[in-house]
Amino acid sequence: MAPTTESSAPTAEPRLSSPVPGLILLAIGAWFGFVILLADHFGLNLSFGIPSGIQASIGALAGIGGAVFFLLSSDVRSPGRSAQLLLLAGVAFLIIGSFVGLFLSPPEQFMGETQRIMYVHVPTAWNALLAMTFALVCAIGFLLTAKWKWDARLEGSIEIGVVLAFLLCCQGAIWAKPTWGVWWDWDPRLTTTAVLLFAFLGIIALRRF
Questions:
Q1: For residues 190 and 8, what is the distance between their CA atoms, to the nearest angstrom?
Q2: Max avg pLDDT among 62-71, 100-109, 133-142, 177-186
Q3: SS3 assignment, position 13
Q4: What residues form DSSP beta bridges with 112?
């Protein structure tokens, strides 16, 4: 009788059955981080009596949780449809948020109209740091597991982080000129952001070589 041989085919990894948990987390983040504020501008109270500080915490944690869910969910079924829904939702919220920041919100007491760039500058900074932190997690994941899906996530998060870090530096310069009178100041935060940007650009260049 011929000896039995074990199959060398890779074992299929478990698949996440639905993108619904991620969508719910993002919806909660959008509600507490955006919808309540917009409704309040039009005289509607949708906060359910929750203090503003707790609202901000819930919105931030839910938004980060939803983002991490989809960053880790390469095994979600029908990823194309989920990506399309997220893209449409992101574009819609970007347009609405830009309109609120540029036209509905009042000018700041000391910086005046210049302060409006903060409605873009600060979220850019948050997401740039989130993408680069996720890149660190993916790098550690690849070193520990040697699975190429972690390397793919690493490359994608680095590219997103570099784009956002570049935009962050440009937006900071635009804000600094009318505020400080110079396009660039060697402030520790600005300098470390620039160093981070060039470091990740170097990583991308090394990967291409």
A1: 51
A2: 133-142
A3: coil
A4: 108
